């Protein structure tokens, strides 16, 4: 099995968001059933996917709207 390393921005963003979410878990602003690391991975993956699609289809013109859609879709379900 080949396990490639993620590019630095993916790892760095995931680490930063994971730290923010751990603080939310510690402050009880994040549901106890939420795994901060998993949620961070999902958010980073979704953002980078949206960024790539936006770049390919619209030269990133709709990236803010796509990012807003991710937040509106994912966050209420945690």
Tertiary shape = globular
Structural class: mainly alpha
Low-confidence stretches: none
**Count of individual helical segments:** 3
Mean pLDDT: 90
Q: How many strand units?
A: 0
Strand and helix order = HHH
Distance between the termini: 32 Å
List the SSEs and their pairings.
Layout: H1 8-26, H2 36-58, H3 63-74
Helix pairs in contact: 1-2, 2-3
Write a concise keyword list for the protein shown above.
single chain, 78 residues, globular
Q: How would you explain this protein's 3D organization?
A:
- There is one protein chain.
- This protein is mainly alpha-helical and 78 residues long.
- It contains 3 helices and no strands.
- The radius of gyration is 14 Å and the shape is globular.
- The mean pLDDT is 90.
How would you concisely characterize the structure shown here?
The protein is mainly α and 78 residues long. It is built from 3 helices and no strands.
């Amino acid at each position: 099995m080949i396990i490639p390393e993620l590019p630095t921005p993916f790892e760095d963003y995931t680490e930063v968001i994971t730290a923010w979410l751990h603080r939310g878990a510690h402050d009880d602003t994040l549901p106890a059933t939420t795994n901060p690391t998993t949620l961070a991975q999902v958010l980073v993956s979704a953002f980078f996917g949206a960024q790539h699609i936006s770049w390919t289809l619209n030269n990133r013109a709709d990236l803010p709207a796509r990012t807003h859609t991710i937040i509106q879709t994912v966050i209420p379900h945690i």
